[in-house]
Amino acid sequence: MQPIKRLNLKALYISYDGMTDPLGQSQVMPYLFELSNCGYEITLISFEKEIVYQKNRAIIQDKLCQNNIKWVPLNYTKRPPVLSTIWDIIKLRKEVFKLYKTHNYKLVHCRSYISALVGLSCKQKYNSYFVFDMRGFWADERVDGKIWKLINPIYSLIYGYFKRKEIKFLHNADHIVVLTHEAKKIVSGWLKNYKSADNISVIPCSVNMNLFDYNHIDTKLVNEKGQSLSLQADDFVLGYIGSIGTWYMLPEMLSFFKLLKSKRPGAKFLFVTKEKKEFIIEEAIKQGLGESDIIITPSELEHIPYYSSLFSASIFFIKPCFSKKASSPTKQGELMSMGIPIICNSGIGDTDLIINESDSGILINDFTTEEYEKAISKIDASLLIDKKQSREVAAKYYDLKKATDTYIQIYKEAELNQ
Q1: Per-residue b or e along 311-350, where b marks 16 or more CB atoms closer than 10 Å to that residue's CB
Q2: Cα radius of gyration rounded to whole Å, the chain
Q3: Which residues is 314 bridged to in the sheet?
Q4: Are domains 10-206+399-416 and 214-398 of this chain identical in fold?
Q5: What pLDDT was estimated at residue 6?
Q6: Where are the domains of the chain?
Q7: What is the CATH number of domain 214-398?
Q8: Residue 217 DSSP one-character state
Q9: Residue 4: its pLDDT value, please?
Q10: Rounded to 5 degrees, what are φ and ψ at 19?
Q11: Which of the listed residues 172, 206, 303, 399 has the most CB atoms within 10 Å of its CB?
């Protein structure tokens, strides 16, 4: 194998998410591997949570080393609120400026807002090419998710501070990355009369389509998974994958399933998640469901395609609010790649656009019995979706290779602007 010719451009990538967390492994590292393999010299700074860092550090270090990426892990501080983040920013600023003394970085690539606070300083102090990979509308997410309650004057001040910084990041960024076309429209409006939309790229949360591919699923393994969960071959299985957390509307999804079960008495609701079983079962009982109606199993990423192959249809309801116009649910790309029909709510990022283009699911407009009835009446038809078409549209929006190609183009632009 020929050694990779290292290019002149040195890049510093800053992430407040950890690489020992699943998100870092699925939504950061694959892009960086491709960029490094193209010859870019990359230093990665990330904030790691102690327990998962100790568990996964050696594996992640080895993968990054194999791809010629220098890793600088910093300790993530969780408590106390606000002060812990300020302390992390101080640590980050100190580390970044120390690295700049010995590395001639030409590009600083910042994932989300905390990283961009320091990245903007690098732009101003060192004239680095500044990539603001904003992901979602972070400050608005904190408010919409009730993490920052604006009735509290401290959080009101913090929100105002980050909204002002948000505009500075956008105005000073050499390139901006958002997750959805809806977000690009909004950001372009914010930048009207300041900057062209040409420097805004849409890169949704991407999917490894080689892993999530219904063409390469071993039916024997799927049957084994089904047997281990006491599922019968003719069971109607409504499926959910991933964490629940702040945004996913568990009571509403269970309420939908209750109505579905009244029409399909043998239906089961399968959660493929690492959430605590008690949390889901408790809410199911509140909704008038029996414990036997709900099946919950944890899974590592590589096994999710086999569990999702047990789904007759899948569901996710996300809290509709302004900040979610900038969100890209990873599970949508995974499910579409598997050709599994989706039931979801409208108004979330590009979900409506993609579902309608692919004809791969059912959209509801409100969380009412009437809307649930309409959706349930369409389920039989949705089971006949064209899997190939679903997968082709998923590739158009979510393919990891397409995402990495866009990042490579951004880095090439930075090279030309050195």
Answers
A1: bbbbbbbbbbbebbbbbbbbbbbbbbbbbbbbbbbeebbb
A2: 22
A3: 239, 342
A4: yes
A5: 62
A6: 10-206+399-416, 214-398
A7: 3.40.50.2000
A8: -
A9: 61
A10: -80, -20
A11: 206
pLDDT of the chain along its 418 residues, tens only?
A: 445 666 678 999 999 999 999 889 989 999 999 999 999 999 999 999 999 999 999 999 999 999 999 999 999 999 998 999 999 999 999 999 999 999 989 999 999 999 999 999 999 999 999 999 999 999 999 999 999 999 999 999 999 999 999 999 999 999 999 999 999 999 999 998 666 678 999 999 999 999 999 999 999 999 999 999 999 988 999 999 999 988 999 999 999 999 999 999 999 999 999 999 999 999 999 999 999 999 999 998 899 999 999 999 999 999 999 999 999 999 999 999 999 999 999 999 999 999 999 999 999 999 999 999 999 999 999 999 999 999 999 999 999 999 999 999 999 999 888 7
Looking up tokens 């490579």 gives 408
Q: Where are the beta strands (DSSP E) in 23-149?
A: 41-48, 69-75, 107-111, 129-135
Angle at which helices 330-337 and 387-398 pack, to 10 degrees?
Answer: 140
Query: What are the backbone angles phi and psi of residue 34, rounded to the nearest 5°?
Result: -65, -40
**Residue 127 backbone phi and psi in degrees, to 5:** 60, 35
- In whole angstroms, give the CA distance from residue 264 to residue 276: 27
The two structure tokens encoding residue 83: 């002060």
Q: Give residue for tokens 């509307």.
A: 249
Beta bridge partners of 75: 48
Q: How far apart are CA 159 and CA 143, in angstroms?
A: 8
CB 231 within 8 A of CB 356: no
Q: Residue 215 CB: number of other CB atoms within 10 A? A: 9
Q: Which fold has domain 10-206+399-416?
A: Rossmann fold (3.40.50)
Least Cα distance to 315 among 356, 351, 353 occurs for 351
Helical segments of 153-233, H only: 153-172, 181-190, 219-228
C-beta of residue 74 within 8 angstroms of C-beta of residue 92? yes
**If DSSP codes are grouped into helix, strand and coil, which group holds residue 327?**
coil
Q: Is 282 helix (H, G, I), strand (E, B) or coil?
A: helix
Query: Can you spell out the DSSP letters for 378-391?
Result: THHHHTT--HHHHH
> Strands (DSSP E) along 85-236, which ranges?
107-111, 129-135, 175-178, 200-202
3-class DSSP state for residue 203? coil
Beta bridge partners of 238: 269, 313
